[in-house]
Amino acid sequence: MTVPPLVRGWCPDMFAPMEARDGYLVRIRSPLGGFEGQQVLAIAELARRFGNGVVELTNRGNVQLRGFSSTSAKLALESALAEGLVDPDPAKERRRAILVSPLAGLDPACNPETLDVAQSLQTALLEENALSALSGKFGWAVDGGGYVPEGTLSADIALQSRPDGWSVVCGAMETGVLDNARAVRAAVVMSRICAENSDLGRPSRDADTAAFVLAKGGLEGIPCKPQGTRPVSLIGPLPGKVMGVGVPFGRCHAKDFEILAELAGTSRLRITPWRSVLLPQQDGTWPGFITSSVDPLLRVEACIGRAGCAKATADVVGTALALASDVPPGCVLHVSGCIKGCAHPRAADMTLVADDGHYEVVRNGRTTDTPSWHGRDIPQIRALLRHELKETQV
Ligand code: SF4
């Protein structure tokens, strides 16, 4: 297996594992937001047989498996291809990066054409080989709104539902309202312009890119609000008679993933970008999973930390577990193993960045912002949480 060099815009997948402290990690993209039961079982088997058994949910609604050797990652790829979990063409596989409203087809308030439009977009993207030049981080979304409001899904190019059709949102600009076919075509044209102009930043990251892309594509556009800035907690009973079940820190063992497949029965297991899965609503218990929207674990975000990443200098998950009950409702504590901030690439009420076994503490900011406090341990952070975040709530 050839492990690709670390270059800008590179993302791991089954063809391109990424090295971590606990071995290589791989990602499997969910087909339009969900897996069939057999696919879930196949993924659990890959994790157990070839990796270290850990299954993680990503903030793009995909799954990540860890702990592979270079040999076992190669065997896992062969198995994934045989199970139809990935496209045989690595370049096409990268173009399956489409987020779809998690409740599409279930929530009566979500545009009923969302899944059809997502399928059309995927077909069009797979046919467009010129898009192989796009960054591996480039992503699309089909955002049908409803219970999960329009604008919640983050993407470089998103089709967003409007009363009479779809607007195509490219970074900070959006087109007028288009019908299904024209919206898909516009999204492909915009993507092609991004691919042909490799010096452009991604639309979701670079405000100038969107205006250039729309002008070059001959599309009229107007400024719009930033996308994907508000995570949504899809936990508990939801529209469409489904149950949102949270996976603590987005991380579970293969056997838990198999339990989710059993609970999903004949339904697809939908994976949300917010570390939860959707199951047919039913009474019962889900030991080890989060079923209450007020569970304190939902107030903390944490990467794998020292257990799996060489960049971390602290037991990030242990710290998050120790502090969860000190975070008041409505607030978010982000515990990060380093400044990269993988688990929560946004601002939080309080952000901790591990530094030589202690933490730098940022108030109302992200990992890259200037810390207000330095070198704090858990008791000191607990005192800060009580003082700072309780004051916020008064
Ligand atoms: S935030 Fe840093 S320590 Fe945590 S997983 Fe990402 S790179 Fe590793």
Number of domains: 3
Helix content: 25-40%
Helical/strand content category? alpha+beta
What ligands does this structure carry?
iron/sulfur cluster
Strand content: 15-25%
Q: What's the gyration radius in Å?
A: 21 Å
Q: How are the strands ordered across the major sheet?
A: 6-7-8-9-10-11
Please describe the biggest sheet, giving its number of strands, its sense, and whether it closes into a barrel: 6 strands, mixed
Polypeptide structure, described:
The chain is 27% helix and 23% strand. Helix 1 (37-50) packs antiparallel against helix 2 and helix 1 (37-50) packs antiparallel against helix 7 (254-264). The chain is globular, with a radius of gyration of 21 Å. The protein has helices at 37-50, 70-82, 90-94, 114-127, 180-196, 207-216, 254-264, 316-323, 378-393, and strands at residues 18-20, 23-28, 34-35, 54-57, 63-68, 98-100, 140-143, 157-162, 165-170, 173-175, 221-223, 236-238, 242-246, 251-253, 269-271, 276-280, 300-302, 333-336, 348-355, 358-365, 373-376. It folds into three domains: 18-85 and 250-280, Sulfite Reductase Hemoprotein, domain 2 (Alpha-Beta Complex); 103-223, no CATH class; 296-393, Sulfite Reductase Hemoprotein, domain 1, CATH 3.30.413.10. It contains nine helices and 21 strands. By secondary structure, it is an alpha+beta fold. The termini are far apart. The strands form four sheets. It has a six-stranded mixed beta sheet. It has a five-stranded antiparallel beta sheet with strand order 1-2-5-4-14. A five-stranded antiparallel beta sheet has the order 3-15-16-13-12. Bound molecules: iron/sulfur cluster. Iron/sulfur cluster is lined by residues 303-304, 309, 311-312, 336-338, 340-342.
